[in-house]
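Bumping my old thread because nobody answered last time. Still need a sequence for this structure:
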């Protein structure tokens, strides 16, 4: 007996189409998710071909955004490019709970222990080279391995040329700068960009070495204090000498002033005496003598003239003729006026002899 199949109804066709569409959509979503990867901001991707003639790490990095790839033949490796901070310390509460501090040696072979901090980031254009060399995209693993070994080797290389006193004291900053430069020289070519390398806290030395350095530093401080004291004493001595010189100079200036004043006064008195001498004529001298005569004649007298009454007035002159005397007197008065700056001094009049009674 033959079985007759009825053709599907219109409703059945509609359901079939819906199911088919959903299935296709699910397949597309699955394929899209499997062949698409998003590179977040602050990251960069590396395309790795797993098959074909170009298999291996591709030179061009994958930038931020959605990336399409064939999951059967390709792989996208993501790297962070933001700044990474690591600390290698002895303390258990910072970093990992194990002693990760770095130990290096000075030129004398003294072991120095330090807590080191490092900030770095990855150069995006060198990410393919970095992954191609280490096959590792976990930067913490790379930092605690390759980078830490490089930093430790740089410290040993630089510090081995320095005495421990420089490492522990004034040379620490230069040592750190040289170590940073050496680390950059090694790590830059692999894409590691060092932003900052620091020594966290104080360096740790063997106790006997630390005590010796402290004693040396104390001796240096004492020497500096002694030098400062010597400078202070010298400054005070120089100040005392300067004051003594100043006092001596002041005394010399005062003595010179007194001498100049005495000389000026003597010259003034001499000029005044000369003016008086030139201003006094023989007639005036005779008149002054008569003024002081009491009018009594001496009881005994010789055959000559009476004293104070009759005398040779010419013998009382100044030894100059009248014109010369007047010119000399005028010159002295002019000099006196110029030096004193006062008004003109009038020529003293020559009083006339009174008429005899």
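Sorry it took so long. Here it is:
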């Amino acid at each position: 007996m033959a079985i007759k199949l009825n053709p599907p109804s219109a409703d059945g066709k509609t359901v079939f189409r819906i199911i088919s569409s959903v299935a296709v959509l699910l397949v597309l979503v699955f394929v899209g998710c499997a062949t698409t990867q998003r590179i977040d901001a602050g990251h960069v991707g590396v395309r790795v071909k797993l098959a074909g003639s170009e298999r291996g790490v591709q030179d061009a990095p994958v930038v931020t955004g959605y990336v399409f790839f064939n999951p059967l033949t390709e792989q996208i490796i993501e790297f962070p490019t933001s700044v990474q901070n690591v600390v290698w310390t002895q303390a258990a509460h910072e970093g990992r709970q194990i002693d990760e501090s770095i130990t290096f040696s000075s030129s004398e072979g003294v072991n120095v222990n330090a807590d080191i901090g490092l900030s770095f980031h990855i150069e995006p254009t060198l990410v393919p080279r970095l992954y191609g060399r280490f096959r590792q995209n976990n930067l913490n693993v790379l930092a605690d391995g390759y980078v830490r070994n490089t930093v430790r080797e740089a410290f040993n290389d630089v510090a081995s040329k320095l005495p421990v006193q420089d490492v522990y004291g004034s040379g620490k900053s230069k040592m750190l700068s040289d170590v940073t430069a050496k680390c950059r020289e090694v790590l830059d070519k692999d894409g590691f960009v060092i932003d900052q390398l620091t020594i966290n806290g104080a360096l740790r030395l063997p106790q006997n070495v630390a005590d010796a350095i402290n004693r040396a530093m104390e001796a240096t401080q004492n020497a500096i204090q002694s030098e400062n004291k010597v400078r202070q004493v010298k400054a005070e001595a120089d100040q005392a000498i300067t004051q003594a010189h100043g006092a001596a100079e002041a005394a010399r200036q005062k003595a010179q002033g007194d001498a100049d004043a005495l000389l000026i006064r003597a010259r003034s008195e001499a000029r005044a005496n000369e003016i008086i001498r030139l201003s006094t004529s023989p007639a005036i001298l005779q008149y002054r003598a008569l003024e002081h005569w009491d009018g009594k004649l001496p009881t005994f007298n010789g055959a000559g003239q009476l004293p104070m009454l009759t005398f040779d007035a010419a013998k009382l002159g100044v030894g100059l003729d009248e014109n010369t005397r007047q010119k000399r007197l005028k010159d002295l008065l002019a000099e006196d006026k110029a030096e004193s700056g006062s008004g003109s001094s009038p020529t003293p009049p020559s009083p006339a002899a009174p008429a005899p009674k």
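The CA atoms of residues 47 and 76 lie 5 Å apart. Let me know if any region looks off to you.
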